[in-house]
Design a protein that fits this description.
Elements (H helix, E strand, L loop, with lengths): L4 H11 L1 E5 L4 H13 L4 E5 L5 H11 L8 E5 L4 H9 L4 E3 L5 H9 L3 E3 L1 E2 L2 H9 L4 E4 L2 H4 L1 H7 L7 E4 L7 H10 L4 E3 L6 H6 L2 H18 L4
Parallel strand pairs: 1-2, 1-9, 2-3, 4-5, 6-7, 7-8
Helix pairs in contact: 2-3, 2-11, 8-9
Length: 223
Amino acid sequence: MIKNKETAIAAIKKQGLLPLFYYEDAQVSLEIVRALYKGGVRIFEYTNRGKAALENFKFLKEALKTEMQDLFLGIGTIKNTNELNDFLAAGADFIVCPVVDVEVGKLTHEAGLLWIPGCMTPTEINIAHQFGAGIIKLFPANILGAEYLSSIRELFQGQLFVPTGGVEIDEANIDTWFKAGVCAVGMGSKLVSKKILENREYENLFSLTTKALEIINKVNPTN
């Protein structure tokens, strides 16, 4: 399978969900990925939020050579080009950022990969849009709200958006976001919770993942 900007966008739009998490234990991280995959996930974001992130990411990429080979593994919380270069070398399939760093965007595009910068204001969205962000992450989504996206979406024709932060596994909540025009919803601790990670609740995660995808398939107008 070719993994590039276009195929990553297609995978996110098809799935309608972008799960994300970080955990310091590499083996637990792999088991979480397996549970997500079992639940139907084919693209997800590991986040660069701890000292073990790079080594864990390499461990996951090594595992994916022999299993789950159709899974896109992206890296999130990339704030500068140094971090970017480390994870590009480790084989990241797409790049997610909490901020708009134009140099990160340029290097990601040169690598042929999807760049998803995090934006909050129309000015940030405009900069990201001008520099070719395939998808823009609305962050923090619980502060901005779906009405915010409804208000500004027409200013940026054709731009794809994914809200991250506070999206619930709840039909009314998810439906509100898709009605506002998102192509998918990002989901971190509401899906891969601290409790699930610490107690190794892989079957619970599988069930929650299945439930989230069922809701999305029901409310997503493109499905």
